[in-house]
Every structure is written in structure tokens, then in C-alpha cells.
Design goal:
6-stranded antiparallel β-barrel, alpha/beta, 2 domains, 17 strands, 8 helices, single chain, 19% helix, 9-stranded mixed beta sheet, Thrombin, subunit H
């Protein structure tokens, strides 16, 4: 078997194509359509998605809701030095695993104060960049947290990000990054999809900061994938199974939905499934996704689904036509 290497998934992206803000209207994104069987690439707009859906198909959406996971406070013991923490994992009882910046100045026993001292967090354990901290109150992020925009969006959050870095069907709180393929949908577009006879179902995968973690091994078989928590409702499983029995297609919205459908053996749990070429997909027929970062695990998953050569030709055309890339960017439909 051919060894897949990290360098196989690199490409040059002009920085000006990285979308820093969303479009005024969600549904105005462009849509690149990649037809695997015919090896054909088409260019259109997101609202064209209706033309590619058939009665009896099943659209699978990730209804995770992003929390305001980024907090800015001050270290109490160092004359008020600025301290940022980013939620990684809820460990129960107001205790969280967080990423800290700066990390070296925050050590065990130190306290971070927020909002002029009205709330605080104490460091229980120092694990380098990662810390275990206990907050003085429950869900402090609701009051003082900021929208956790991805690291490639080079600006501070603005008021509109609270709505736009969230899908219109977001429901189950717990993610620290958005399922960005779903950001293009409006309630009206979803109504039109249902009216066409397409079943729309939901699952949950709480995306965490690990989605931005770089792959460090040149040999992909040595990469350890981060874990993310998922919920696959029984009703969703029944609808998907019925769709297959009746000859319909399962269209996953986002790589997160793919990872749940391809790895879920139960109703809930953790997945660390790392999908890269070659991979035999068993649960998904079509995929709606955004454009992904060079050398990222997301790009590898989509390469496995579309075929690497065809996908990279699609990316070449997207760059040539100046598509908008990443979280607030345009979409790709692979059928």
C-alpha cells in the first residue's frame, strides 16, 4: 500500500482569499460542484444546491452550538498581566481543561480574575500550554466569553459574529468551533429542501480546538487524531437506514457529520476517526463542505471522498476564480 505523506496535501493559497468576514447574506456564497463519476467540475451559487438534491435523499446536519469559549482576564499575582484562556474540555463541577496564552506565566495555584474581579479561575494543574482550571461560577463564558474565531481570521470578534459564526439550526451547546459547511443554510433554504421531498435530520458533534491542530508526522499513519464527542439520535439513524433501503442518497453537511456517520456504532460517544486516502466510505454518498487549510486533516478527509487528483484540480480552479476560503468562505458539493 502506498504511504500517504503530509506533503502530498500541500497547496499554495493567496492570503487575500481567506475570508475575514461573512457575506451579508448566508445563501449568497458560491458553490463549486464536483461530480466524482463524471470527473466534472461546475461553478455556481449556493442556492443551486436544490438542483442537486432528489426526493428521497437525506440531508444530515450537525446541530452543535458554539459557546463563547475565549476568555480574557488578568493574572492576579503579577500586577494584572493580561491572560487569555480557551476552553478545551468540560471536566465537570466548573472545572475545565483550557489552552492558555501566555502559557509559561500561568502556573499551578495562580488565579485569573475576570470582569474587574467579579469572577475568577484558579489553576489546579499546569500541563504546559494546557491547564486545568476551576472557575468561581457556572458557565462564566455566557457573561464574559468571546466568539472563538479561528486562528486564520486575523481580527477581533465583532457583534455580528455571535450570530454568523453559528448555524441557523444550532441547538446543542458544546462546540468551540463552528461546523462551517452549515453556515450557508438559511431557514428558507431548508424549507425549500424539505418541500422537495428531502429528509432533513440532525446529529451532534462538538468540534473542539483540536480541529486546528497541525499534522506533525510526514507519514500520515503515525498521526494521532484528536477526540470529539458526538450524539447520533435513534430517529436520525432510522431515517438514514430507511433512505438507504428506498434507494435514496445520504448527503452529509460537513466533515464532522461524515466522521460521526462513518464511526458511530452507538448513540453517543467519542470519535477519533482519522480519514485519509485510501478510505472506503460506508455511510455517506454526497458531501457538502467548505474549502480547507493546506495539510489539514479536513483536506485529507475530503481528498479521500472526492479523489485527491480531482479535488486538487477543483482547488486550483477555485483559487483561479478567487473563491473565498475557510470558515466564512464558499462551499463545495461533492456528488
Amino acid at each position: 500500500m502506498q504511504i500517504m505523506r503530509l506533503s502530498d496535501f500541500d497547496y499554495h493559497l493567496p492570503k487575500e482569499l481567506i475570508a475575514q468576514y461573512p457575506l451579508v447574506r448566508r445563501q449568497d456564497s458560491r458553490l463549486l460542484v464536483l461530480e466524482r463519476a463524471k470527473k466534472r467540475i461546475r461553478h455556481g451559487h449556493f442556492q443551486d444546491i436544490l438542483d442537486y438534491l432528489l426526493p428521497g435523499d437525506c440531508l444530515v446536519l450537525n446541530n452543535t452550538r458554539v459557546i463563547c469559549a475565549r476568555l480574557i482576564g488578568r493574572r492576579q499575582s503579577t500586577a494584572g498581566g493580561r491572560q487569555e484562556v480557551f476552553f478545551q474540555e468540560d471536566l465537570s463541577d466548573n472545572t475545565y481543561r483550557v489552552l492558555a496564552r501566555p502559557a509559561k506565566k500561568l502556573t499551578t495555584g495562580m488565579k485569573i480574575v475576570f470582569n474587574n474581579g467579579s469572577s475568577s479561575a484558579t489553576v489546579l494543574s499546569d500541563q504546559g500550554m494546557s491547564k486545568i482550571v476551576k472557575f468561581s461560577g457556572r458557565d462564566i463564558w455566557r457573561e464574559f466569553g468571546r466568539v472563538p474565531l479561528p486562528p486564520y481570521i486575523k481580527r477581533e470578534p465583532v457583534e455580528s459574529d455571535a450570530e454568523r459564526y453559528q448555524t441557523v439550526y444550532a441547538e446543542v451547546e458544546g462546540a468551540t468551533a463552528a461546523p462551517t459547511a452549515g453556515l450557508h443554510f438559511t431557514k428558507e433554504v431548508l424549507e425549500d429542501i424539505r418541500a422537495k421531498g428531502v429528509n432533513v435530520v440532525y446529529l451532534t458533534l462538538h468540534i473542539n480546538y483540536g480541529t486546528f491542530a497541525p499534522v506533525k508526522s510526514e507519514d500520515l499513519s503515525r498521526h494521532k487524531m484528536h477526540k470529539e464527542y458526538f450524539i447520533l439520535p435513534e430517529e436520525t439513524k432510522k431515517t438514514i437506514n430507511a433512505t438507504r433501503r428506498q434507494g435514496g442518497r445520504v448527503l452529509a453537511v460537513g466533515t464532522t457529520s461524515v466522521r460521526v456517520l462513518e464511526s458511530a456504532s452507538g448513540r453517543e460517544g467519542w470519535t477519533d476517526l482519522f480519514i485519509y486516502p485510501p478510505y472506503d466510505f460506508k455511510a455517506v454518498d454526497c458531501l457538502l463542505t467548505n474549502f480547507h487549510f493546506p495539510k489539514s486533516t479536513l483536506l485529507m478527509l475530503v481528498s479521500a471522498f472526492a479523489g485527491k487528483e480531482l479535488l486538487f484540480e477543483a482547488y486550483r480552479q477555485a483559487i483561479e476564480r478567487k473563491y473565498r476560503f475557510f470558515s466564512y468562505g464558499d462551499a463545495m458539493l461533492i456528488i
